[in-house]
Design goal:
single chain; 512 residues; alpha+beta; 24-stranded antiparallel β-sheet; 9 helices; globular
Length: 512
Amino acid sequence: MLIALALPYYLGVKAQQSLDDQRALLAKSPFLVIDKQSYRRGWFTSTETIQIHFKPSFFAGVQQQLPDNVRTVLQQPITLVNHVQHGLFAGSIRPVRAHVTTELRFTPQAQQILARFFGQEAPVKLENTINLSGSGQMHVVIPKFNYEELSGIKISWQGLESTIDYTKDFNSYDSHTVSPGLDMILATKGRASYQDLQLNSHTEYGKTSLALGNSNLGIKTITFNWNDTTDNTIRLDQLVNLVTNLQIGAFISPAGNSMPTKIMIQDLKLATSTEEKDQWINSNGKFGFAKLQYGNDIYGPLNIDASAEHLDAASLVAINNKITQLSTQNLNNEQLRAAIVEAVRNEGLGLFTHDPLLKLNTFKLQMPQGLIDIHGNLGFKSLLASDMQQLGLMLNKMDAEMDFAIPQAIMENFAISQARALFTVDASAGGAEALEDIDQTIRLMIDSAIKSMQARGYIQVTNGIVKTHLKLINGKVYLNGKIWNIEPEPENEPDYAELPAASAPEVANTDK
């Protein structure tokens, strides 16, 4: 009887230890600040109260583009109240340490805004079941809602549900997230939606702070319809920055003034895997879609499979920490690009000096003009930090081998798009005809260059497909087995197929 009475109190002590560990992880977030915390432990129930707020640098680069309502909610403190039931059968038919229900309390100003979307329903529902071992399961629900403004903005959110199974001390966890869809009518600007989002992942931590494991993201359909394609407030780079930790949007050119009226992606898939071996990291990524409608053009399917092997883990940790720090600073795209490049040169230097190997296992994209097919690999051998200052020294220690198959029409269209950016033509002075003359000139130049390279044996052309095998070795470039040289080819330069194998054993002379 005494044991039965004491057990809930003991489990309450263990539950508090588990919640302390989870709060310590929360405190490590670069975007959150824990203002205050208190814990009142009882015999059968306990209450933990935590007040947090987002750092002013949170979404620093895009805050001004966020709607006023969203920005107001992010700037207000949030209070998390954990209602803890501890006992063998707290909230479960199986023995557990505790069952925790989290109540989110917002400031009156933020609550008034959230009520427009969720009404009297809580905007986030969070439950946490802590097992006897210290492992457990979290269940997160963001309920669906329909929102409408007199301005013409309408949002239909189908909700989100996520389940996270974690081990003791959060050393690893598995998550499964489902969101049926989102449809936004942006008044007179256009419409954006997605359907059937699913995300599954396994995360674990090895010797470093890097997250290892794998993830699989799938979205059935993504659609954008813009009524005003010249509206520069539509910024693809900022949208990418909004949802990525690495700020890769800084390397995407703003496309607000050149987006077509409709973009639709079907069966988008993204899969990643990262593993640790000694002090090295090996990573693989797969990306693709079944179909992309970009204006009137149809692309797809797309299949990309790339991997990076023998990456220095310490350098990855350093550069990841640096880029996370940069993401909290209010930098414009040009400044952010320069800062990331500088971080790669400094914190990420070890990624190049420990014999990394990058592989493009597959790149296949069906385009209106034909199929692009590229695969190959690139690596460095015995590269030193001092070699990074001179391109020639880097090339001498770089080995690369790639196979290309690209339709000539795609090469022509790419060259035309680049050339058009260099010319300004007055439409009142026969602009359309002048542009067509430029286009035709570019096509003739590309065709002439391709025929010249084909005649010299650098490439093969079959049914309009330009093919070649590129190899970089000993600082020299070979195309289709022939050394590349803009000047006439020297007679004493052998093709790489004729080079002696460095590791070939010497043949013994048996004629005695």
